[in-house]
């Protein structure tokens, strides 16, 4: 059974009724972020029940020592992780001498809402304390998209059955720890605590990486709508925490509130000696505007984001809520402003996967950011990898590769590999191909070739060198093999000739050779610089070509399919549909040994190759491979349903495409994998966008022209989306039997719909 407590709503995520069992799941689902920082939806006040406290700052990480029982050459020294940052949201509340704690009160009328349209989180409840006082609370919180070092909280309390003395105790606390710390150690060293009237500052520095952060707060106390200008009656400090005390008398029925401004200034953007001054500047800017203006500006910022990235679905509110939740979380996680940052699989919603960068960014996220923002955002994501090329070459050297071959890490913060499972670190080398594919995909979509001579070609050369060295010549088969790998299907380790990996390796080499030729012909200055830097020569290129031309691909003549790897057909081929439901998910029910011997596929593997290189194969080939592999796929990776949804749509299997779409879009809202309390699946959310735009909409770029093959699930009346294609915004609206295209401005655009060319003029709706 999936969870079903989230109320269906087109623009909000809503929970009604308080249930302690759901608190950690809701902390994930109601998380907020602004690209620079984020936090789980922890209660501001004391909560003695089960909770997973989490606030995070983009780009700040710690190299936690790798925890393995044995050490092998090439193992990463550490596992980098995003850090639980100093907590600025805390507001302990004492009512008539008793701590407000929802785990120790009678709670009723509990409701929370994440308003995705305007970018705020609201919680309200009635609580009866053990001393008999009953209160009504209204709490609203947001992280500013404009002033992205700040957030604001308005916490209002109304005693309903008697007069009350309410003491607000706002604090900032650097004494935090990570749930996922390998050795239970603390990651922050307190540097200083100071205060100035209603403002408090705690500065801390990370051990080892020496990132500095000042977590700050500024408080205002209101009775009704009137700012009391109260200053703290008491200030408590220790070396890592500062707490202010504001006692207020409230008559029964009278509302009192604290407005708390908080956030972080960090050494990524300021000198350490200037962090507190920078925090004071942020407080001044936020205070000048005030809570209501900041909240109105938040709605404006989100309105601009939604104007470009929204997908509307008519007639299916759960599907609508699902896609908006996914788009909202992607925009909260990464804004595209800073090429030092990237997209962690959990974003700001939890600590699993260490907040690091995976191949998910190149394979799944770049298409979303390219089409819903501008090409500069996608270019920043490519630049992130280019800036880490030196580290990728070092990573390859640790494994014995030479001559400038690069292996980009499976998991990274700064370009170094920091994943500590050998079957992933050493073997899941297909991630190298996703990075090359992203360069190709960027050029195909944006038409901007300049990235390749400026930066991309050096990356392609280093990746081609890796594949050339990683291939092994088999005299027996007269072919090059790639041995000892893990493909996208992580339920198979240390296999030989994973088809997807081999195909990607050949393509990477061919593509690099093609680009070298083009840059030599058209960009001679860049070519000379690149040759001097990489020392490539014609003899080396001939060796590469030989590997690409003679690459081995496992194939079964009888079934006419590429095999996922050598020996796949030797398995006991029991389909997932014939597996006892009680055995699922197999990753929680089976031993690893049993999983490795099974035919079960965690996520698209061969079909990932058919997704990337769709134009290399016929529709009949796709259908044959889909019909063979999908029945063995357990979809226990969040990245699986989206690829299958797209391919099912291409094949006209619309019921299947819709089922996969619903699964990917509501993966977290309905907690399919029973793990949402650890955080949301941010990177797979980009796959949900692809399921609609590339799957149902059939959008492709061929020869510099947008192509569409629109289809509509039976459950929908219609849907619409926008594409920013080469700085022109095209709106696509699909209904049963017709599709309309509108161009916002610019010049005439040609698009191809179901193989028919049509012309779209600005501000003129064209219906096909």
Task: Show the helix and strand layout.
Blueprint: E1 12-16, H1 23-29, E2 32-33, E3 37-39, E4 55-57, E5 61-65, E6 78-82, E7 91-95, E8 98-99, E9 106-115, E10 120-128, E11 134-143, E12 150-159, E13 164-173, E14 188-196, E15 199-206, E16 212-223, E17 226-227, E18 234-237, E19 241-250, E20 256-266, H2 275-309, E21 312-314, H3 317-333, H4 360-372, H5 375-387, H6 389-398, H7 422-425, H8 431-446, H9 451-470, E22 472-474, E23 479-481, H10 499-522, H11 524-534, H12 538-549, E24 555-556, E25 561-562, H13 586-589, H14 592-597, H15 606-612, H16 619-629, H17 640-650, H18 654-665, H19 682-696, E26 700-702, E27 705-708, E28 718-725, E29 728-735, E30 738-743, E31 749-753, E32 756-760, E33 766-767
Parallel strand pairs: 27-31
Antiparallel strand pairs: 1-9, 2-3, 3-4, 5-6, 7-8, 7-13, 9-10, 10-11, 11-12, 12-20, 13-19, 14-15, 15-16, 16-17, 16-20, 18-19, 21-28, 22-23, 24-25, 26-27, 28-29, 29-30, 30-33, 31-32
List the main descriptive attributes of the protein structure presented here.
five-stranded antiparallel sheet; 768 residues; alpha+beta; ten-stranded antiparallel sheet; 19 helices
What proportion of the residues form beta strands (DSSP E)?
A: 15-25%
By DSSP, the count of extended strands is 33
Distinct helical segment count = 19
Largest sheet composition: 10 strands, antiparallel
What low-confidence regions span 5 or more consecutive residues with pLDDT below 50?
A: none
Task: Provide the residue-averaged pLDDT.
Answer: 94
Radius of gyration: 27 Å
Structural class: alpha+beta
Oligomer kind: single chain
Q: What is the share of helical residues? A: 25-40%
Distance between the termini: 42 Å
Query: What overall geometry do the principal axes of the alpha carbons give?
Result: globular
């Amino acid at each position: 059974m999936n969870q079903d407590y989230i109320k269906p709503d087109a623009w909000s995520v809503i929970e009604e009724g308080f249930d302690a069992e759901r608190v950690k799941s809701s902390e994930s689902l109601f998380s907020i972020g602004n690209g620079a920082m984020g936090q789980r939806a922890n209660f501001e006040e004391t909560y003695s029940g089960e909770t997973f406290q989490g606030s995070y700052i983009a780009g700040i990480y710690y190299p936690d020592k790798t925890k393995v029982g044995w050490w092998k050459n090439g193992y990463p020294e550490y596992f980098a992780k995003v850090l639980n940052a100093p907590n600025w949201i805390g507001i302990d509340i004492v009512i008539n001498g008793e701590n407000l704690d929802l785990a120790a009160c009678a709670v009723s009328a509990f409701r929370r809402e994440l308003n995705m349209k305007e970018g705020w989180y609201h919680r309200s409840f009635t609580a009866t304390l053990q001393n008999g006082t009953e209160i009504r609370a209204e709490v609203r919180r947001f992280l500013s998209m404009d002033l992205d070092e700040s957030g604001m909280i308005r916490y209002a309390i109304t005693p309903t059955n008697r007069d009350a003395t309410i003491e607000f105790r706002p604090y900032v606390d650097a004494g935090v720890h990570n749930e996922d710390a390998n050795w239970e150690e603390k990651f922050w060293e307190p540097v200083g605590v100071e205060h100035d009237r209603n403002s408090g500052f705690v500065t801390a520095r990370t051990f080892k990486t020496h990132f500095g952060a000042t977590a700050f707060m500024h408080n205002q106390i209101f009775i009704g709508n009137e700012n009391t200008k109260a200053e703290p009656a008491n200030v408590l400090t220790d070396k890592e925490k500062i707490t202010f005390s504001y006692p207020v008398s409230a008559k029964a029925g009278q509302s009192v509130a604290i407005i708390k401004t908080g956030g972080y200034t960090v050494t990524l953007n300021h000198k350490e000696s200037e962090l507190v001054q920078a925090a004071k500047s942020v407080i001044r800017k936020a205070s000048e505007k005030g809570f209501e203006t900041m909240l109105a500006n938040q709605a404006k910022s989100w309105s601009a984001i939604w104007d470009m990235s929204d997908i509307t679905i008519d007639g299916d509110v759960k599907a609508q809520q699902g896609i908006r939740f996914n788009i909202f979380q992607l925009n909260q996680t990464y804004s595209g402003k800073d090429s030092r940052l990237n997209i962690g699989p959990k974003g700001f919603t939890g600590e699993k996967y260490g907040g690091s960068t995976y191949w998910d960014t190149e394979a799944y996220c770049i298409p979303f950011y390219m089409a819903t923002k501008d090409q500069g955002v996608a270019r920043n994501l490519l630049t992130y990898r280019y800036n880490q090329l030196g580290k990728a070459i070092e990573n390859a050297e640790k494994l014995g590769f030479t001559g400038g071959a690069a292996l980009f890490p499976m998991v990274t913060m700064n370009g170094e590999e920091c994943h500590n499972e050998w079957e992933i670190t050493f073997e899941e080398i297909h991630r190298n191909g996703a990075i090359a594919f992203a360069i190709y995909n960027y050029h195909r979509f944006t038409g901007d070739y300049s990235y390749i001579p400026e930066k991309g070609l050096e990356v392609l050369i280093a990746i081609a060198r890796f594949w050339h060295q990683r291939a092994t010549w088999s005299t027996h088969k007269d072919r090059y093999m790639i041995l000892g790998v893990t493909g996208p299907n992580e339920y198979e380790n240390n296999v030989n000739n994973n088809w997807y990996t081999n195909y990607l390796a050949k393509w990477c080499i061919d593509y690099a050779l093609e680009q070298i030729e083009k840059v030599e012909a058209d960009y001679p200055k860049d070519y000379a610089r690149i040759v001097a830097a990489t020392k490539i020569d014609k003899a080396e290129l001939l060796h590469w070509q030989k590997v690409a031309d003679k690459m081995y691909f496992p194939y079964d003549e009888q079934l006419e399919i590429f095999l996922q790897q050598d020996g796949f057909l030797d398995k006991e081929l029991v389909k997932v549909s014939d597996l006892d439901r009680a055995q699922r998910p197999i990753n929680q029910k089976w031993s690893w040994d049993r999983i490795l011997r099974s035919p079960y596929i965690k996520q698209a593997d061969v079909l990932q190759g058919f997704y990337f290189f769709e134009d290399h194969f016929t529709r009949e080939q796709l259908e044959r491979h889909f019909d063979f592999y999908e029945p063995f796929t357990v979809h226990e990776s969040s990245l699986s349903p989206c690829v299958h949804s797209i391919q099912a749509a291409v094949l006209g299997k619309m019921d299947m495409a819709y089922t996969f779409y619903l699964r990917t879009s509501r993966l977290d809202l309905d907690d399919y994998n029973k793990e949402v309390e650890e955080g949301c699946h941010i990177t797979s959310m980009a796959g949900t966008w692809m399921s609609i735009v590339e799957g149902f909409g059939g959008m492709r770029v061929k020869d510099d022209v947008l192509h569409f093959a629109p289809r509509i699930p039976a459950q929908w009346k219609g849907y619409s989306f926008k594409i920013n294609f080469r700085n022109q915004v095209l709106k696509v609206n699909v209904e049963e039997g017709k599709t309309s295209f509108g161009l916002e401005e610019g010049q005439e655009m040609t698009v191809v719909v179901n193989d028919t060319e049509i012309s779209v003029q600005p501000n003129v709706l064209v219906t096909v």
